[in-house]
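Box 3.1 A note on notation
Throughout this textbook, protein chains are presented in two layers. The first layer is the amino acid sequence; the second is a token string describing backbone geometry. Keep the layers aligned when reading.
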Amino acid sequence: MQPTPEQSPHHAYPDHWEADVVLRDGGTARIRPITTDDAERLVSFYEQVSDESKYYRFFAPYPRLSAKDVHRFTHHDYVDRVGLAVTIGGEFIATVRYDRIDATGRPASAPADEAEVAFLVQDAHQGRGVASALLEHIAAVARERGIRRFAAEVLPANNKMIKVFRDAGYTQQRSFEDGAVHLTLDLEPTAESLAVQRAREQRAEARSVQRLIAPGSVAVVGTGRNPGGVGRTVLRNLLAAGFTGRTYAVNSAFAADQATIDGVPAHRSIGQIGEPVDLAVVAVPADRVPEAVTDCGEHGVQGLVVLSAGYAEWGAEGRERQRELVRQARSYGMRIIGPNAFGLINNSDAVRLNASLAPESPAPGRIGLFTQSGAIGIALLSGLYRRGAGLSTFISAGNRADISGNDFLQYWYEDPDTDVALLYLESLGNPRKFTRLARRTAAVKPVVVVKGARHSGSTPPGHAVPVSRIPDATVSALMRQAGVIRVDTVTEMVDAGLLLADQPLPEGPRVAILGNSESLGLLTYDACLAEGLRPRPPRDLTTAATPQDFRDALTEALADRNCDAVVVTAIPWVGENGEAESGDGEVLAAALRTAAATGPAKPVAVVHVEIGGLAEALAAATSTAAVPRVVRASAPAAPEASAAPTDRAVPPTARTVPPTAPGDQLTQQRSGTGPGDTLAAPTLGRIPAYPAAERAVRALAEAVKYAQWRRQAAVPGKVPEFLDDTIDEAGAAARIDALLGPDPDPRGRPLSHDEACELLGRYGITVRPTLPAPDPDAAVTAAARLGYPVALKTTAPHLRHRADLGGVRLDVANEAALRRAYGELTDLLGKPTELQPVVQSMAPRGVDTVVRATIDPAAGAVLSFGLAGAPSELLGDTAHRLVPATDRDAAELIRSIRAAPVLFGWRGSAPVDTAALEELLLRVSRLVDDHPEVVSVALEPVVVATQGLTVLGASVRLAPPPARTDLGPRRLPNY
């Protein structure tokens, strides 16, 4: 909505303040600035507010607004006077306003930095978190306009409003004056306010998903009159799954006297149903979808699954149609799965929802599955079905114009029915948020991701995503840092998901291998070594081994304290007559499951070759009761535990498991629990089976790495306090402001060598001095000043850091050698004006490394480390971590490159000072985290000696800071 000409001409309508938000109950609303066109809406809104709420707002009976009031509340300059409204269906449900004041409480303009704030929420919408969302947005607006504090007067009886302020997490002061509570809020975000905001975000978005996947009633809009077709197929699948709620068929072409179809009530519109409808599955042509959305919105439908195609996947016209679909649905408070979706499934016994095109619902289980591709979704469902795996929920989001993988991570985080989250993603709409949510979810349950469309320029049509400049390998490293198990194929995702859902996490990398084939055992052994595991020599049971032999061997291996996991290999065994037999797979499966169920809690995987019925028998469960998985007491709490208790959505860390039937060994808890153990992430009594050793071992290796991440994440890293004593944050900020100037170039500017050295020095990073050498005499003068021995090197862009091209001369001991080296350099590579030679004193010998930090518009600030030189660059041997980095991140960064042994005494060399290197990484991390204007830092080379290190080269680039959408008030993305 744009302002009228009456609006202040000095300040344009701030359309970037408009936002869609998810409220506490999962519904959506729109927040936008109030304009002069809103007079009638304001009056209508006020008439629906109770007398009590009006009294709380104005401290006196105030039955109606005067013309002067309406004018004042709709005319703003968007700087000193700002009003925001929350709308649903275009009508106001709440308002907030601030007026800038001076120290005496009178109206003022900048530089006054305090404002009086007041809220009013319709009684019908109180308790939905409307005021809390408004406070976040009006506070962000105020900070943008230079306001640092809010003042509010609240009647003591207005407990709801007092609670809104109290629970916001801002630093505040309260006093009682003249019969009212006087509140002052410091608007600078705090760790507590951010934690509260994110806890509210989690609760609201999880609830919005729950409204979609656990509806009390479903209407299929577009149910065909004849068998076949998309709508009729969905209706058939709903009925076949045994949906526990009410089901309706809707088609405007139904005859007026048609009462049912397939035994379901038939109606020509949502409005004709006459009862509440929670979820509508829309299966009509794209040009008729707006009519269907209006019908749904005006009759209280809470959410939509849009199966219709013809949107952003069809080009610019379809993309605009998709945007309008989202705008229309959100205006009614509805969220959307789709368009171009395949549907959703909820296997909870209380729901039994199959609102999808999948002909068969997978069995109930503990895996949640999200996919952006319908074709991949079909393949995954089929594969999971064949392997006997069960799902808790399945979602195929299509163009994911609204609901995305982030929303389902919010839901699965606290869903007691989901132990493992599997996601097939073709794009990341909000990578920073994804990383944050994935890290939190991975702290309590595994998150396995396959990323399709990994190469630049291959983003699928319909997926609007921010442009990222970082390579896919960096994205993978950042996911690993967040605890995400990233795999390359959907087959690997299923393999890992089955093991994680069915088996306990391993306590280490030690693997026992046993089976009746020496060759298969050796293949498994080699695969373990290739994946970084520590296999024990395979135990060959010989081809004459019986199921009882397998059981005894597995029992023994599980009881071995030097074993963390077991891989069982099996081929058809030889019978008494000497002939190979396929054997009874069910008998072998029963033996293995009995041993696994009664032994200590360790993961077991089976590799089999041509044993009929074995995989199916291993995947079968004799009971649907969950078997507890033992997790040590050091399992991490959610990273946002600092949130206010009133707004925390804490996932269950322990659940009561139904008792098993006598003799039902396959679903009994394994022994081996000890003091401090808690029951978490329960799993069914199944053993995953694989047709190849490499697949089983790769899944096991992912489980080992994830378990190690969980153990390490239990004690979060920290930034050492000693850094604060040697960092001049304020001085650096002032210098950055001066370097950028009052009107900085949006493209930014590189710093000169001296400017970079000065800025880095404020963070305790010393760059070894260099002096220009435009001619031999200048080089000799510089060397005399620095002291011999020196290095002579070029700084031309095409030769920088390329010692292999001959642009560097080291250990130049005297003047004669320096003049000779200068002549050789210019004769070989060109004129001094082209080479830009410099002289630098020699650093102690050590290992040449590279430290970089860059800000990616999609992923955020990234810290990188590797060895210097062409080999590491060609092999991509660089490690990455998100900023801010902790001491643990810095230590892992150094140790995670393949060439790390060079730093720790490889082949008899002396180990270098990795502690000094870790400190340097932390200082660079602090610099870019404290000052987002520092968009790029490169320290190359950094020579790490046995004691200390030397930074020989540095470059820094400054630019206006990119927007940080992850730190602002809650809002839904606009694609």
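Residues 191-213 form the longest helix (23 residues). The chain has 27 helices and 41 strands.
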